[in-house]
């Protein structure tokens, strides 16, 4: 899933990270990361299951014990391959009525590395609002301009094998303070079950304590402005004003944390003011997803900075020993 920096920052600010993906990336994200039953919008032009085939996604290959590229195909494959061209097209009935799309289709994903390992999915595609059959279905391969279609097309995963796993990113999990590890695990469980309010509440609690933790780690990296960051921390410990800390730190951040073009700490902090009772569960879920992505982004960039400095110090140490 690749977004430009500008698109990423806009998504984080609006709390709708997944809304900025293309349809192919949306479907790939559902296959790779999403738990069952979470629905996402896709382009109406993907109304027929034929158009979903061939999409590439990343998945764990048990044969190679690593994440590899997979490609999606319609299933059962032997039956589909046995049909002629016209039978193949006519076998799919995406329209439930003249104004409603709904179908559940069986797909298989093939590992493109070992060419042997497969994974299996059931995808539910359905419309919300009216979708005129006459506007959408003129041809399987040559669709009309669909600007007049008022309904939306949604997709969700309703079956998967191997089953979906809730696994915190090891790099992130090891970084969190002890009390926040439990909260993060609970937040991920809530996200997997689409409990937006609960997930958002847990993640806000984590961010509130981890902002200072992240700043403290930056002050220990011996970057050019680490002393100034440490001074900001000393000031924070006296006045406990988190807002002033996140406002002041941006000038001293390493470049890999400025890639968004905005202050990631300020963005994280802004979520703490979002009232849980002012948003629906679905809105809170959207905020929680964005908050999780931004938190992971920030922590990973701090760890990258630490690892890069360790590597450089090791290289310099080796050079000095040869003098």
List keywords for this structure.
2 domains; alpha+beta; single chain; 7 strands; Four Helix Bundle (Hemerythrin (Met), subunit A); disordered N terminus; seven-stranded antiparallel beta sheet; 323 residues; 12 helices
If you had to describe this structure to a student in words, what would you say it looks like?
With 323 residues, the chain is an alpha+beta fold. It has two domains: 157 residues, no CATH class; 152 residues, Four Helix Bundle (Hemerythrin (Met), subunit A) (Up-down Bundle). Strands 1, 2, 3, 4, 5, 6 and 7 form a seven-stranded antiparallel sheet that branches. The protein starts with a helix and ends with a helix.
Strand content: 15-25%
Structural class: alpha+beta
Q: Strand count, sense and closure of the main sheet?
A: 7 strands, antiparallel
Number of extended strands: 7
What general form does the structure show?
A: elongated
* Count of DSSP H/I helices: 12
H/E element sequence: HHEEEHHEEEHEHHHHHHH
Spans of at least 5 consecutive residues whose pLDDT stays below 50 are 1-9, 11-20, 140-144
Distance between the termini: 46 Å
Mean pLDDT: 79
Q: Using only CA atoms, what is the Rg? A: 24 Å
Residues in helix, %: 40-55%
What assembly state would you assign to the polypeptide chains in this entry? single chain
Overall number of structural domains: 2
What's this entry about, in short?
This protein is of the alpha+beta class and 323 residues long. It has 12 helices and 7 strands.
Any chance you could write out the topology, listing elements then pairs?
Elements (H helix, E strand, L loop, with lengths): L4 H10 L8 H10 L7 E3 L13 E6 L4 E9 L2 H6 L2 H6 L4 E3 L2 E12 L6 E11 L4 H4 L15 E10 L8 H6 L2 H15 L3 H24 L6 H14 L2 H7 L15 H7 L10 H41 L2
Helix pairs in contact: 1-12, 7-8, 8-9, 8-12, 9-10, 11-12
């Amino acid at each position: 899933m690749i977004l430009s920096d500008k698109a990423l920052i806009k998504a984080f600010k609006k709390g709708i990270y997944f809304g900025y993906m293309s349809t192919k990336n949306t479907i790939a994200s559902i296959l790779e990361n999403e738990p069952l039953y979470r629905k996402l919008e896709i382009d109406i032009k993907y109304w027929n299951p034929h158009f979903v085939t061939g999409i590439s996604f990343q998945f764990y290959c048990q044969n190679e014990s690593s994440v590899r590229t997979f490609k999606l195909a319609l299933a059962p494959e032997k039956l589909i391959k046995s049909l002629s061209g016209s039978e193949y097209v006519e076998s799919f009935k995406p329209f439930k009525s003249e104004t409603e799309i709904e179908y559940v289709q069986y797909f298989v994903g093939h590992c493109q590395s070992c060419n042997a390992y497969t994974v299996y999915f059931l995808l539910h595609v359905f419309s919300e609002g009216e979708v005129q059959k006459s506007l959408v279905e003129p041809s399987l391969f040559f669709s009309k301009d669909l600007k007049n279609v008022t309904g939306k097309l949604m997709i969700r995963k309703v079956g998967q094998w191997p089953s979906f796993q809730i696994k915190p990113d090891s790099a992130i999990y090891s970084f969190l303070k002890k009390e926040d590890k439990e909260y993060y695990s609970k937040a991920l469980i809530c996200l997997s079950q689409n409990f937006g309010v609960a997930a958002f509440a847990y993640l806000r609690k984590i961010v509130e304590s981890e902002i200072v933790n992240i700043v403290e780690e930056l002050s220990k990296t011996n970057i050019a402005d680490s002393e100034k960051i440490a001074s900001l921390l000393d000031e924070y410990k006296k006045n406990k004003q988190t807002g002033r800390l996140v406002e002041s730190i941006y000038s001293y951040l390493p470049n890999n944390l400025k890639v968004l073009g905005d202050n990631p700490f300020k963005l994280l902090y802004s979520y703490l003011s979002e009232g849980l009772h002012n948003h629906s569960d679905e809105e809170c879920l959207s905020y929680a997803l964005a908050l999780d992505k931004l938190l992971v982004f920030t922590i990973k960039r701090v760890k990258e900075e630490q690892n890069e400095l360790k590597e450089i110090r090791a290289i310099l140490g080796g050079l000095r020993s040869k003098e």
